[in-house]
Amino acid sequence: MGVPYAGYSEAARQSIRAERLARPPLRRPQRPPADVAALKVLSAVAPLSEDERALVRKLCLYRESIPAGAEFAREGEAAPARLIVSGWACRQQSLPDGRRQIFGFLMAGDAIGLGLRPRPLDEVSTVAVTRVECVDALMLREILAVQDGRHAGLRNALAAARRYEEACLLDHVVRLGRQSAHERTAHFLLEWRQRCRVAGLADAERFPMPLTQEVLSDALGLSIVHLNRTLQHMKRERLIEMKRGWVEILDAYRLKFICDYQSRWPTVGGDGSSVSLVREF
Amino acid sequence: MGVPYAGYSEAARQSIRAERLARPPLRRPQRPPADVAALKVLSAVAPLSEDERALVRKLCLYRESIPAGAEFAREGEAAPARLIVSGWACRQQSLPDGRRQIFGFLMAGDAIGLGLRPRPLDEVSTVAVTRVECVDALMLREILAVQDGRHAGLRNALAAARRYEEACLLDHVVRLGRQSAHERTAHFLLEWRQRCRVAGLADAERFPMPLTQEVLSDALGLSIVHLNRTLQHMKRERLIEMKRGWVEILDAYRLKFICDYQSRWPTVGGDGSSVSLVREF
DNA sequence: CGCGGTCTTGAGCGCCCTCAATCGACGTGG
DNA sequence: CCACGTCGATTGAGGGCGCTCAAGACCGCG
User: Fold this and answer.
1) Given a cut of 60, is residue A13 above it in pLDDT?
2) In this structure, is residue B271 part of a structural domain?
3) Per-residue b/e over B109-129, b at no fewer than 16 CB within 10 Å?
4) B29 CA to chain A: closest CA distance, Å?
5) Which bases in strand D are touched by protein, i.e. have an atom under 7 Å from a CB?
6) Beta-carbon neighbour count of residue B4 at 10 Å?
7) Residue A143 and residue A54 in contact, taking contact as beta carbons nearer than 8 Å
8) Predicted local distance difference test score (pLDDT) of residue B132
9) Residue A99 forms contact with B (CB below 8 Å)
């Protein structure tokens, strides 16, 4: 009776995570202002003025480094304003018995704690999956709070990122509720590829996949073992190839067919105005 | 190979739905201004001034009736501004093979097409599950667009409703990704009860459940058959009782224990200010 | 009374789960 | 340089949750 397969007898997992969280974040010296992926993502949807680009570059001079496993923000707390420059983080919720569900991932160009009106999504636990380089975006937040015409591009870009995140959450619900393990995995990989491409992190059909299978399975609502077998199967079917933190899509067409994938990335009109995603912040 | 259990060989379902959508919405004569559930829901979080209450009541004089199965708004289109007075609707997405995932439900007091900044959630297909009475809320939308101090209560209430809907969506993800059929069902019923109570539709432990098991299963990511067996099991366990469109919770404590339920409804501080959900619209 | 929709129940099975062990890669300390 | 511990990926075995198919019961309605 009662609780059917409550899953994952993983007290171990819990303690490991707790230990990771204990490590304090490091602060690093300034770095040369590379043309960061963050800027690429932001300007992918809404065109940024040269002023705005300069502003972002300037922000990026003062980086902060968050080790893998550290928590950006705990559940229920408003996250400090940060813009991710590189690395990957996830939004998640844990159940009391150790089960975990990941809502989505954050990458370069994504912001947390920036919304003027907080969403519930901004108030769940957010954890760095890899080491994350980010910058304090409090200034950005205040700039955006001023609703004058300046920085309209930045405002649009950040609003688009928020909207895209929410759109992905809807896809996530469909995946979890109505798709099989193969479909979920295929769909997720295509979505991931899309994001990496926009950020300029992808190389043709190859893109980085820093997530362990444990993390991946907690996102896709599968067990580690079954996710592994699903990936193995897709390799054997010559759909994908994985090595050393990279994934290569061998047959994108078939993969899309399997899971009925259609990108949620906003299509940009000929005049440079985004059709569906860009709105006020 | 390829698509594992693609599920539900239900071409029938599709055609039935298509037929329902064909029926045009009816327009009914005015009705006496009952103290509608909508008003109850809106004032549950943010206190409304007498002016605001009068405004809502006035809006409610001109009702529109939408038959069960009709679509408020198609996918990708912005929905017309409406405030639901009674009845139930759902946000959903269909897969090409007929599978369907329901994102959530709308009840009295919920608004569609009212957001000044559209969310992806507002752009999915929205369908009336039962007959829905609603009112044109275009006026409301314009009133809210004026960011002066007046109608701050209404703005807060509607913003809270939006936030609550998003919070429920997160719970939905956890249910679908990491909970068993029993847990999902228990959790959903408790959430539903909570909403009915706030709306004043519940009677102690009894509350209306107008959803068919088909609809319920499409929300919970289960097959109809398995949902049925799950409900049967919960009845046999003396957890719930169901008859004629009503559910009675027999053992709320045990039900909460099963699924680790905790309400996302905003707790209201002693001074009447909502702690977490009320923000600007 | 026939009929369509919904709910129920039985049977069979397969997707996906858990448990458990192994292997490779990597970093650490002796 | 090698033994060792750890983490992640992999694989086998077994089983149960939840699926599909199918048929019958129930019920409101014209």
Assistant:
1) no
2) no
3) bbbbbbbeebbbbbbbbbbbb
4) 37
5) 7-13, 16-22, 28
6) 14
7) no
8) 92
9) yes
Does residue A276 lie within any of the structural domains?
no
What are the C-alpha distances in Å from B65 to residues B88, B100, B112?
A: 12, 25, 15
pLDDT above 80: residue B76: no
Ramachandran sector of residue A8 (left: φ over 0; alpha: ψ -120 to 50; beta: rest): left
- Which residues 173-202 of chain B have a CB under 7 Å from nucleic chain D? 180-182
B184 vs A: CB within 8 A:
no
Nearest residue to B226 (alpha-carbon basis) of B214, B242, B238, B208? B214
User: pTM for the whole thing?
Assistant: 0.85
Judge whether B80 is closer than 8 Å to chain A, CB to CB: no
Task: Give B187-212 pLDDT, tens digit per residue.
Answer: 999 999 999 998 888 888 899 999 99
- CB-CB contact of A72 with A135 (8 Å): no
Q: Tell me whether residue A65 is in a domain.
A: yes
**Residues of chain B with C-beta less than 8 angstroms from the C-beta of A258:** 2-3
Task: Indicate the pLDDT class of residue A171, thresholds 50, 70 and 90.
Answer: very high
Which protein residue lies nearest to nucleotide C6, measured between its Cα and the C1' atom? Answer: B212
Per-residue CA distances from A272 to A162, B140, B260 (Å)? 19, 32, 48
The minimum CA-CA distance between A28 and chain B, rounded to whole Å, is: 35
**Total tally of structural domains belonging to chain A:** 1
**B278, amino acid identity:** V
Token output for B3:
């698509």
Q: Shortest CB distance from B170 goes to which of A120, A177, A237?
A: A120
Domain coverage including residue A101: 12-259
Structure tokens at B21: 């959508």
How many Å apart are B37 CA and D10 C1'?
56
Of B95, B170, B221, the CB nearest to A121: B170
Q: Return the exposure string of A174-206: e unless at least 16 CB atoms fall within 10 Å of the residue's CB, then b.
A: bbbbbbbbbbbbbbbbbbbbbbbbbbebbeeeb
The CATH number of the domain where A87 resides is what? 2.60.120.10
Residue with the bigger pLDDT between B51 and A126: it is A126
Residue B78 belongs to a domain: yes
Question: Closest to A166 (Cβ–Cβ): which among B120, B178, B276?
Answer: B120
pLDDT band at residue A94 under the 50/70/90 scheme: very high
Q: Is A236 on the interface with B (CB under 8 A)?
A: no
List CB contacts (< 8 A) between A159 and chain B: 117
pLDDT digits (tens, 9 = 90+) for B33-45: 455 677 888 888 7
Q: What is the dihedral of CA A256, A258, A259, A261, to 10 degrees?
A: 20
Q: What percent of chain B has pLDDT over 70?
A: 81
